[in-house]
Design a protein that fits this description.
Chains A, B: InterPro entries: Glutathione-S-Trfase_C-like (IPR010987), Glutathione-S-Trfase_C_sf (IPR036282), Glutathione_S-Trfase (IPR040079), Glutathione_S-Trfase_N (IPR004045), GST_C (IPR004046), Thioredoxin-like_sf (IPR036249). Chains A, B: This is Glutathione S-transferase family protein. Chains A, B: It holds the Pfam family GST_N_2. Two copies of one chain form a homodimer. The first copy, chain A, has about 230 residues and is α+β, with helices and mostly antiparallel strands. Chain A folds into two domains: about 80 residues, Glutaredoxin (3-Layer(aba) Sandwich), CATH 3.40.30; about 120 residues, Glutathione S-transferase Yfyf (Class Pi), Chain A, domain 2 (Up-down Bundle), CATH 1.20.1050.10. In chain A, strand 1, helix 1 and strand 2 form a beta-alpha-beta unit.
């Protein structure tokens, strides 16, 4: 299988982590999300990341389709290592949280901060490159604070985000947080329970490649790959 | 079960149609999406529609979680009337299209047009009510045209949107289109194949309550409930 991704795409990281947790082998293909190349648009008319190309060559587009596909073709054979719970209502809670972190947090904050601080440095001016929009960044940072309050509450009231054991909800949340953390955008001091939860999740072997991610335009904050932080 | 909905919420209509196709009995509870009442926010911290309250009283939030829950608890027992295909890759295509219509079309156009033309008439000024933003409406209308081109292409190249038979993808698309059509925002003359497809879907018995929807602020275009149009 092949995964079209960008190292600073939170939703691409979510799928890399899922595949990593299940020990699936695949090739990573770097795709700039602002390049709407005809070849890539043929795979995914939405032009968004991630896209997983299955063994048969079919493109699976977006986290909703990919996450369920991985569960159906890999997760269901993983017994207690499956990242989806057994009961429909428990799965509904995992899916609510995946949506919360992959769609809402992304729209409220991550997407904006990545675009303004990272992508704009690489994007041609004709595609939206140029100076960062400081008003947009300020609004996004306010939203990060609100999201961290909710994450801190979740992490403090449950062992893992959707209940007792690790699920795809933790993976989705940690993927988003890892992108914000790379940029030093997480107010950890105000979120001790979220910090304790994130430390646990980022210590998992599947997280290693994520912590090794480096992009030319921006070096990560010093604690980014530190497992004791 | 109870469904918190608004008649002009495309994603609420999607779930009403799914439940209708499967003959599930439930109560409808009207919820204004701009009222962030404490009671409703307890059910869904995202404050968005739809929310399905299960038989056990648990809240299932958002179309991703609800659509999969209905499939798992109802659809899988429906044999050839199931609205999800049997094979994982076929299901991936259905989910891509659900995401396309419920998230992307909604963000690109439907949400804006409903907010500007309908919700703003009912919303208090302190909550964003007031005069419609004509620039936002113009941009949304441009996006409707693009989406209709894609829908027309899908409807022309496949019998149903995701393949040979009717799936949740058709239901999701028709739910969104029905909201735009209510407002007279669909350029049908440019989309003959989409029109033929929509006429087929809206003739289904499950669609009847949707075609009977009326809101105080805006009467529908004259052809809205016309099955021969």
């Amino acid at each position: 299988m092949q995964l079209y991704h960008h190292p600073m795409s939170a939703n691409s990281r979510f799928i890399r982590l899922l595949l990593g947790e299940y020990g699936v082998e695949y090739d990573l293909i770097h795709q700039n999300p602002w390049d709407r190349e005809a070849e890539f648009m043929k795979l995914n008319p939405a032009g968004t990341l991630p896209v997983l190309v299955s063994e048969s060559g079919a493109a699976i587009c977006g986290i909703y389709a990919i996450c369920e596909y991985i569960d159906e073709t890999r997760g269901t054979m993983m017994r207690e290592r499956r990242l989806m719970p057994d009961y429909p209502l428990d799965r509904a809670e995992v899916r609510r949280l995946i949506d919360w972190f992959c769609v809402r947090l992304d729209q409220d904050a991550t997407k904006t901060l990545v675009r303004e601080r990272v992508f704009k440095l690489d994007m041609p001016r004709t595609n939206g490159g140029g100076a960062p929009d400081s008003a947009a960044m300020r609004a996004a940072r306010g939203n990060v604070k609100q999201h961290m309050r909710y994450l801190n509450w979740l992490a403090g009231s449950r062992n893992c985000l959707s209940g007792k054991s690790l699920t795809a909800a933790d993976i989705a949340a940690a993927a988003s947080i890892s992108v914000l953390d790379y940029m030093g955008e997480v107010p950890w001091a105000d979120s001790p329970q979220a910090a304790e939860w994130y430390q646990r999740v980022k210590s998992r072997p599947a997280f290693r490649p994520i912590l090794e991610d480096r992009i030319r335009a921006l070096t990560p904050v010093s604690h980014y790959a530190d497992l004791d932080f």
